[in-house]
Amino acid sequence: MVEEHDFRRFPELRNAQLESMQFES
Asked: What is the secondary structure of the chain as a DSSP string?
C-alpha cells in the first residue's frame, strides 16, 4: 500500500489507485 505522504508527492498516483478501486467494485 502506498503511504499517505507519497500521495501528496504523487497526486496522480492516488488518482490512479482510486480509479482502479472503482473498477474492481
From this structure: ---HHHHHH-HHHHHHHHHHHHHH-
